[in-house]
Hints:
Two copies of one chain form a homodimer. With 248 residues, chain A is an alpha/beta fold. Chain A is built from eleven helices and ten strands. In chain A, α7 packs parallel to α11. At the A-B interface, α7 and α11 of A face α7 and α11 of B.
Amino acid sequence: xxxxxxxxxxxxxxxxxxxxxxxxxxxxxxxxxxxxxxxxxxxxxxxxxxxxxxxxxxxxxxxxxxxxxxxxxxxxxxxxxxxxxxxxxxxxxxxxxxxxxxxxxxxxxxxxxxxxxxxxxxxxxxxxxxxxxxxxxxxxxxxxxxxxxxxxxxxxxxxxxxxxxxxxxxxxxxxxxxxxxxxxxxxxxxxxxxxxxxxxxxxxxxxxxxxxxxxxxxxxxxxxxxxxxxxxxxxxxxxxxxxxxxxx
Amino acid sequence: xxxxxxxxxxxxxxxxxxxxxxxxxxxxxxxxxxxxxxxxxxxxxxxxxxxxxxxxxxxxxxxxxxxxxxxxxxxxxxxxxxxxxxxxxxxxxxxxxxxxxxxxxxxxxxxxxxxxxxxxxxxxxxxxxxxxxxxxxxxxxxxxxxxxxxxxxxxxxxxxxxxxxxxxxxxxxxxxxxxxxxxxxxxxxxxxxxxxxxxxxxxxxxxxxxxxxxxxxxxxxxxxxxxxxxxxxxxxxxxxxxxxxxxx
Lengths: 248, 248
């Protein structure tokens, strides 16, 4: 039986303030919780699961002696879940360790300017993981990495991509030995960049684009040629298209 | 002042059943309502707007003599809106006319197998509109084109792409003079298909992929090469990547 205090404490992790204070976040569903439990990078503190999940995963408690497993009823899971349809299990994890000043030489990295929609940022992390991108540098006003919606939308890629939140102008200036590319309108077609091995690619906020001071630092502006009439592409879709041409 | 009956009738359009019965749907926000009002393909029956919107768009009623414009208060807009933050204006439109048996020769068309998430389908329509795709053929169990979430996520591309809901096996068989390609794992790399001018590209449900009987009809299986570790790509992202290589 989940106590009222415990329920409130888990609910509080839906808010960034409490995630920052505790250094914890939560993830839900058999697939995602399983991936994070089995991932090397992640320390799991507690798992709250329906009997069904515990029966389907009998070896879990023995393989994770430092994790507390608690069986809960459906109505209890509903209380602590952030999903409209709670899905068997919720795990509380320690935030990932992040490499603050990684070596970007010889790599393609992403620089995200104000991606505020958690679902969009989660999808970008999943795309980065598909294309083998190791580092994403986000502006400080980007969606929080541990927002429940973001965690769910990464589909298990969370923790496989190093995420850095920082002031971008300073970051780009410090790392300007790496070519800086920006995804924007009226640049060179993305097809010209097939075989790119090293760059920092700036992706902008969907409605506002890339801030002028960041755009000014870019050595190349890259454009996805438009044939039809849509006004823009979703930031995650644009990221996927750019990376697929770079790694061509 | 919006009557109770009128409020209920607008609210009922959140349900497919009532949209099908009335042949109507609604869209929200100055940008989207403006785009649809100004688009040639769309007949607008009614507009419910805050005074602010009416003042900012003084010429609208004169340009649309067949549309009824009504000023509403914020609390009334909240009642009829499907958005968590209502945005100035809601318009009620007649569903688009759809071309049921278009000529697909010399064109790239999309065939969507069970894309059930309205946001995903809306994003795919927007991508199709960017790349100049004229026709999307959806399985009958796909998200409804006039679902409020879908309408919002098309960002104005709704009505610029012809949407057909039909049984896909029959469709593909009838149109098999057009090359059938399928986006799936373990196929030829998408880069080999640069310059594709004519095909029907099948995109599958994210969790289940493409149904075996549809996959069997495909002349080519096309794959987005994976470098990292993510298990899959979002269906809309995969669509964007494929189309950007075809139109290379």
